[in-house]
Amino acid sequence: MHIHKYEKIWLAFGIGCLIVFLTVVGVSAFAAGQQPPSCLTTIDPEKVDSTPPFDHPGLVKKGDKEYELNIVVAAFSFTPNAIEIPKGAKVTINVTSKDVIHGFEIPGTNVNMMVEPGYVNSLTTTFDKPGEYTILCNEYCGAGHHMMTARIKVVE
Amino acid sequence: MAQPLEKVDRRDAKLALAHLFVAFTALALGGFAGLLQTLVRSGKFELPAGISYYTILTTHGVLLGLVLTTFFIIGFQFAAVSRTTGALSDGSRRTGWVGFWLMTIGTAMSAFFILTGKASVLYTFYAPLQAHAGFYIGLALVVVGSWVSGFAMFAHYARWRKTHRGQVSPLLAFMSVTNMVLWLVCTLGVAATVVFQLIPWSLGLTDRVNVLLSRTLFWYFGHPLVYFWLLPAYMVWYAVIPKVIGGKMFSDSLARLAFILFLLFSIPVGFHHQLLEPGISPFWKYVQVVLTFMVIIPSLMTAFAMFATFESYGRSQGATGLFGWLRKLPWSDARFFAPFVGMLFFIPAGTGGIINASHQLNQVVHNTIWVTGHFHLTVATTVVLTFFGASYWLIPHLTGRVMTKAMNRLAIIQTIVWAVGMTFMSGSMHFAGLLGAPRRSAFSTYGNSPQALEWIPYQIAQAVGGTILFIGIILILVIVINLAFFAPKGETEFPVAEAAAPYERAALALENWKLWIGLVVALILIAYTVPIIDIIQNAPPGSKGYKLW
Question: Are B547 and B215 in contact (CB under 8 A)?
């Protein structure tokens, strides 16, 4: 098949960029551990309230400046919905849903994950800046979807 | 004496027009729903009579994302196949009408349950939100109808090849067949979840549904869906626009190769819509991210071909200097201008797509209104402006009329209105999304959250853009109605470009469907077998249905 010389240059440049790009993405995923939230733990969505750690949702201290934040999500609320976190804390957030699919997002941070019934999802983040943060649901879940919110206060 | 124009058979024209009629009706209703959404989200307007924002949102998504696109595409492709490979056989045409009525009845059925508030589940209908069974059955009929029409096109194409042994098929026919193969393979996924999971579950025959499996089957369909929208626009770009401007197609075989690459790499990639989900291992997500990015190659080929066509034409008209050829292009011809503006918008649109599908960057924008901004550039600008541009010759060709100068001028204005409206709306969606504003949400300040208050100016800009776009919809409807019923009688060309160089033998090899479909299946099996076995074997207890609206 005849390919024009300029097109060869154009495609070589494009494909070259693509290889570099995918290598950067791959190295940062597998070597640096920058993977999207992909927790594989399952849970019975109808027994969330009696399954640890979601039977006692909230912030749990795990070590020096290390915390676990377990949140139960259901239409149309987050439990707990007012959380205080010390500044600089490294927090692993675990979430699960009791009913339909929800989203878990903290605008202004990179905290963003899907919450699906039957699965726990999880990510770790560090709260470096003090102030008030909003948790909101970013996956349509019904009539009260846009009312679904909670607060995190990062304190000194 | 001028040669008589090659025309689409009159009976085939009727079939194509029926599809376009439904498509533009969907545009009118779905566009109005879109206007209401942007007004609600500005915070300055509330829907009357307790109508839910989410009912309107479902209407908008289903009518524009599924109905407008599918009907326009199938109608356009019937016309393209008939124009380039001759009138359909009576059998194929009848099959086409069966497909049309199945799709139309399915659409009416789903629309009924949406508008009566029984199916406010948005056009992605994620379980375990459970709509009325009639909504799912309607959608299944739309899909089955589109298959029936696809088979009518395949049969016609096969007949042409039998009577033209050793010849390369006309480009538009080849491309239509490629797009329908893509459609058939990808809709198997959505049909599987709708027919085997959601319909029995919504009828109460089964209690519970595997949520992650259903979503995965949906997204196995959801991404190729966007290529099913895009490829007909590319057909217009590759095979029609060169003729419209008076030039030649840059390369026939490279155009075919690009389509085959789209066919191969648009399906095994659905996980890039599920990057933030539990239950899928990050390894398989990354595999599909890599496959997703392969479509950049045919996209770069398409960009090159377009601008090579434009520049070659401009230089053949005596243009000099680096950009002199730009001035030779027929800017005042809406058949060129509308698709060209669509192409320009594809530059930021494609860039946004690369961001969305990136393994890590997705987390910044996932489910924010940035994504809504993104696909309002891809489908609602690039694709839709190209469809409008095609309508300016297709509709008068099919109805035996001609577009007047006044209508052409209105079409130029329509394109500008669309570009301005979309710049406002999609631009502010992108910015608000970067600040974290969620998509698919009614107006809310999230308890006067400082973050949410920052989004309000952008939401007002969206309403301004949405209003301008609605004016654009009124303009296109005026033009389409004129072209269909009121324009002066006459003959309009269905432009089909010739290749700059004679056919190459390679083009014949590109019609080896057994090879390509085999490769498509192989890639799908590689990308999906292990994770789907995982999803089924390690499934949590299923979910019962919820009606939370």
Answer: no
What was the ipTM of the complex prediction? 0.96
Cβ-Cβ pairs closer than 8 A, A with B, add up to: 230
| Beta carbons of B386 and B236 less than 8 angstroms apart | yes
Task: Summarize pLDDT for B210-233 with one digit per residue, the tens.
Answer: 999 999 999 999 999 999 999 999
Flag whether pLDDT at B501 surpasses 90.
no
- Contact B436/A40, CB-based, under 8 Å? no
Biggest CA pair distance of chain A: 67
Q: Is B223 a catalytic residue?
A: yes
What's the CATH number for A45-155? 2.60.40.420
Q: What is the DSSP letter of B65?
A: I
Phi, psi of B500 (to 5 degrees): -65, -35
pLDDT tens-digit map of B84-123: 999 999 999 999 999 999 999 999 999 999 999 999 999 9
CA distance B452 to B435: 9
CB B217 within 8 A of CB B190: yes
In this structure, how many other beta carbons lie within 10 angstroms of the beta carbon of residue B93?
A: 20
Domain ranges across chain B:
10-537
A137 to chain B: which residues are within 8 Å by CB? 438
Residues sharing a CB contact under 8 Å with residue B73, sequence separation 6 or more, in sequence order:
B179, B228, B229, B232
Is the CATH number of domain B10-537 1.20.120.80?
no
Asked if the Cβ–Cβ distance from B541 to A118 is below 8 Å, we say yes
pLDDT tens for A22-32 read 999 999 999 99
Please count the residues of chain A: 156
